[in-house]
């Protein structure tokens, strides 16, 4: 992470991991194989981009770190569940994730379905116990549920499934797909931090603009990494998009134009955060990371 | 339904259907195949037992019917998602549900996974917009999330998967399995109504006792129906439990003892509801229905 303060980012990752671990500990009496699959899906690493966005946004506007733990854990639990289900044979059929066997490979397909289902439920249970006042908590729960659902993440994955191999997407359709599949949850992470901080409407609009640019940049960088990397570095199967004839930014507009688009999104992010000055340092660093990351 | 007022039950079913339909209408811009699968999973009938429990409980303690619509829709959306995923080839592998092809048969397996995922998210989105005060809404959201997750419904299904064919369950383990797999969500339905009504602690304890007895009775009756019925009457594949060597009450304690157990659960329900008198008429009728139902 190219943050001004890498130690802070590491501490946030540890906070999120601890919050997720504590949430799983509340389920110690659950069916052992299901619980083991949930730990496998959540505690074997990962960038924790979404929790970092919750912490960076919330602390920028005055919320204490510990008051952000439940929201950080909740958004990562939703992300983790989506990876488990996306990796299923009936979806993207991937055997490797974060350098580890995917859940349906390490366990079995039925367990992987239940694992994702239970992680989604756990996300809302964790968020329901957040320390924000009830009205803010309800708004946060609504935000996460809407972002995760058919109008957001699930809808984006459905578009992705429908488009794979069909070769009919133009660049606008691809951007719309990613705005839902990846962007909705990244934006929700920023919004959860903003709702916890009870920011004013103008700030919320700027944070949305930042988050939307970050979400698109994150996906374009993901597409470029699939072209540029090998599986060992990436921790998942590289070259898969091309093999599956997936619509990607490099495939539709070329590698150079994709890189240029990243630079223009960097400018959009800087502009959105400009009025916040120093307090947005961590958010700006996360934006730069989305564009420069190599894993 | 053997209710004292069948018209009221029909009206409640229509209210729940309408609330679910309205929730799906908010997703009109979603990927068409995903949305069609969600309609297929939710709007093709079903007993609506869980919404009826929400209405019967809430109205018994003074809540207006329309204030219960979101909770009724939410609990049914969770139930509907669980059926879509339970029917998957990697889970119970069933082709027929409510007399219709299951979602993965009518659509495809990837769509069925996403359909269930999106229905779960929608449940929480709908409940977040319920008209109860924020603190009550948070409690309702927590209740639904905990009941649906690894400590409840998902955990019960995981136990069921682990036990199928293994032949190692005793009657206590089978009751525990069903208390989680079916019972947790039926109890959540009663609790959502109770939370909406802000009932006192003593009332809550009695309602839990009623709901736990109803949940177990519901499952024993389900097991008996699998033995007694044909697929046409049942609307799903009959004789499946025996074919899959599933632990069931008739298999473990016999048909006669299962029927006797139902009668004792009927007495437990009557006793739990006794202090509520006339106001619990609809709840009592739902309890009797759980025991006598033929579909």
Automatic annotation (TrEMBL), chains A, B:
Species this chain originates from: Luteimonas yindakuii
CDD domains: Trans_IPPS_HT
GO cellular component: cytoplasm
NCBIfam families: FPPsyn (NF045485)
Keyword set, alphabetical order: Isoprene biosynthesis, Magnesium, Metal-binding, Transferase
InterPro entries: Isoprenoid_synthase_dom_sf (IPR008949), Polyprenyl_synt (IPR000092), Polyprenyl_synt_CS (IPR033749), Prenyl_diphosphate_synthase (IPR053378)
Record's protein name: Geranyl transferase
Keyword Metal-binding found: yes
Cofactor field: Mg(2+)
GO biological process, one term: phospholipid biosynthetic process
GO MF, any single term: metal ion binding
Family to which this protein belongs: Belongs to the FPP/GGPP synthase family.
């Amino acid at each position: 992470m190219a943050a001004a303060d890498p130690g802070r980012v590491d501490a946030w990752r540890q906070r999120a991991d601890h919050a997720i671990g504590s949430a799983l500990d509340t389920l110690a009496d659950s069916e052992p194989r299901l619980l083991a699959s949930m730990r496998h899906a959540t505690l074997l690493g990962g960038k924790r981009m979404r929790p970092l966005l919750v912490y960076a946004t919330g602390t920028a506007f005055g919320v204490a770190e510990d008051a952000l733990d439940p929201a950080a854990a909740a958004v990562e639990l939703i992300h983790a569940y989506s990876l488990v289900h996306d990796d299923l044979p009936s979806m993207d059929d991937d055997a490797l994730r974060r350098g580890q066997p995917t859940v349906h490979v390490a366990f079995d397909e039925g367990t992987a379905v239940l694992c994702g289902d239970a992680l989604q439920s756990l996300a809302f249970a964790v968020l329901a116990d957040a320390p924000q006042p009830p009205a803010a908590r309800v708004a946060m729960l609504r935000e996460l549920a809407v972002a995760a659902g058919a109008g957001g993440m699930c809808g984006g994955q459905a578009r992705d499934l429908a488009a794979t191999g069909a070769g009919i997407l133009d660049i606008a359709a691809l951007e719309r797909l990613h705005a839902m599949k990846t962007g909705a949850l990244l934006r929700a992470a920023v919004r959860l931090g903003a709702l916890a901080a009870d920011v004013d409407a103008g700030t919320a609009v700027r944070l949305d603009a930042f988050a939307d640019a970050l979400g698109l940049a994150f996906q374009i960088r993901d597409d470029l990494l699939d072209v540029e990397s090998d599986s060992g570095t990436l921790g998942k199967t590289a070259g898969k998009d091309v093999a599956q004839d997936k619509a990607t930014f490099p495939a539709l507009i070329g590698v150079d134009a994709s890189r240029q688009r990243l630079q223009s999104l960097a400018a959009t992010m800087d502009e959105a955060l400009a009025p916040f000055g120093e307090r947005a340092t961590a958010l700006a660093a996360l934006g730069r990371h989305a564009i420069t990351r190599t894993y």
